[in-house]
Design a protein that fits this description.
By secondary structure, the chain is of the alpha/beta class. It is about 30% helix and about 25% strand. It is built from 14 helices and 19 strands. Helix 4 packs parallel to helix 5 and helix 8 runs parallel beside helix 9.
């Protein structure tokens, strides 16, 4: 039996803050006791971690990543090995990545392919969502089987005609199936058919720079698709999770649906909270670094997103980590913004940026843990195994120094990508030590983990629907 005790830190969960010592046995949290009490003094272990003056928080749960994802003739630059290592450096101990069904293929083939990519390569634990690109009778039957084996969420796209796109009829059928089998439909809500018209017209006018990516993917077309997805889910009697919400008009649609008592959930990402169309408009071709979909919005949208996180109209912050190198990948779109691979790196930065939001007064410390750890774990059927520090939970624990200062830079990050979306940004707070199931993955800013420590984690259905 291996034992570790973490002494003297401020333990922060979504529900509580307490100065407590944490006892870990065989990869799980065995007990907590208020620091300095006889109960805490009685904890004995082979290894002691001193967390005096630090936060002790649950490992982050990033419910939206794309490792090794094929897109636009290339692949996301992070493998499961490099991407999960970078996640650990940033205090994230569980990811849920997206397996992809190719049109004409089965869900099973797509899922098997992603298992093969990840198995034996991950530094931290992982699960899968399933991208459903081809809704047919066989696919619908497979959805039932996947839910039974712990793949309980299915992503559909109202965007990308000819690639991932599903029409309203296909979406409705998948939602009806999810209503029956307990699955959660995740929606990329943008009107892709209308966007393609605007892309074609912009290029015909000679508007080819990265900034036009944001201009053609209108906020109103995100709001329209969000509204349509909500109504289709209502017709189907199914829950809905809208991914990467970026526009204040889309937040308003979610808020209205939730006020009406519908099981509708929303996620946003750090890029929408901290970056804007100002970045897309950076001179030369620099704006290409910030091309993602949904796109970055004008700065005034940020206030609505922060408010949504405070009022719980948005429940989760994930990264949508989908990195493409500037050299050789983003450059595929020189002279035609529509050919820039869509996606940004961020799996390493999320916990730190959200701590900066605590420092800046946007959210509380407990809300930080809620939106980054506890809620994604509940949303995707992994709580309380993941997302909290409590007896019986996996010992996924981060020792976090709230006073350390750092400057985010591609020079020092661990993601396999040649730029940082937050280059030169000074932030307060830094991960010091990370345990995954009781094993030290980061030890006082040294990587001590290994590929293959991370294991596949089957999930139950969304825990907000029980």
């Amino acid at each position: 039996m291996s034992r570790t005790v973490i002494r003297g830190g401020l333990v922060i969960t979504a529900a509580d803050e307490i100065h407590a010592d944490v006892l870990i046995e065989d990869g799980r949290i065995a007990a907590l006791a208020a620091s300095g009490t006889p109960a805490a003094e009685a904890f004995t272990a082979e290894r002691t971690v001193d967390a005096t003056g630090k936060y002790v928080i649950p490992g982050g749960v990033d419910g939206h990543t794309h490792m090794e994802m094929p897109f636009g003739g290339t692949y996301a630059a992070d493998t499961f090995e490099t991407g999960t290592r970078a996640a650990a450096w940033g205090g994230t101990t569980t990811i849920v990545d997206f397996a992809i069904q190719t049109v004409g293929g089965s869900l099973r083939e797509g899922l098997d392919a992603w298992h093969a990519k990840a198995e034996g390569n991950c530094a931290i634990d992982y699960g899968f969502h399933m991208i459903v690109s081809d809704v047919n009778q066989e696919t619908l039957k497979e959805m039932d089987l996947l839910v039974e084996e712990g793949v309980t969420s299915f992503k559909q796209f109202m965007a990308y005609p000819g690639v991932f796109y599903s029409d309203d009829g296909q979406i409705l059928r998948a939602m009806q199936r999810a209503a029956d089998n307990g699955g959660l439909i995740m929606m990329h809500a943008e009107n892709g058919i209308a966007i393609d018209v605007l892309v074609e017209q912009a290029l015909a006018r000679g508007e080819t720079d990265p900034r036009y990516h944001g201009e053609v993917r209108r906020a109103l077309l995100e709001a329209e698709a969000t509204h349509r997805a909500i109504r289709l889910a209502q017709v189907a009697g199914a829950p809905l999770y809208v991914v990467h919400v970026s526009a204040q008009e889309a937040v308003a649609e979610l808020a209205r649906a939730r006020d009406d008592g519908l099981s509708v959930f929303g996620e946003t990402c750090p890029q929408y909270l901290f970056l804007s169309t100002d970045n897309l408009a950076e001179p030369g071709f620099e704006g290409a670094k910030y091309v993602c979909s949904t796109p970055l919005r004008p700065k005034e949208h940020q206030a609505a997103l922060w408010k949504g996180l405070r009022t719980n109209d948005l429940q989760v912050v994930s990264t949508d980590h989908c990195p493409f190198c500037f050299t050789g990948q983003k450059e595929l779109g020189r002279g035609d913004f529509s050919k820039i691979p869509n996606g940004m790196p961020g799996v390493e930065n999320r916990m730190d940026l959200l701590h900066q939001a605590v420092v800046d007064g946007h959210i509380s410390r407990r809300r930080w843990i809620e939106i980054a750890c506890a809620t994604p774990a509940r949303m995707f059927g992994m709580y309380p195994k993941k997302g909290t520090i409590a007896p019986g939970a996996d010992a996924d624990v981060v020792i976090y120094d709230p006073h350390a200062e750092q400057v985010i830079s591609a020079e020092t990050h661990h993601m396999n990508v040649d730029y940082s979306a937050y280059e030169g940004r000074r932030i307060t707070g830094r991960v010091e030590t990370v345990l995954s199931r009781g094993e030290l993955v980061i030890t006082e800013r040294e990587y001590t983990g290994r590929a293959g420590h991370g294991v596949y984690t089957p999930r139950s259905t969304c825990q907000y629907l029980d």
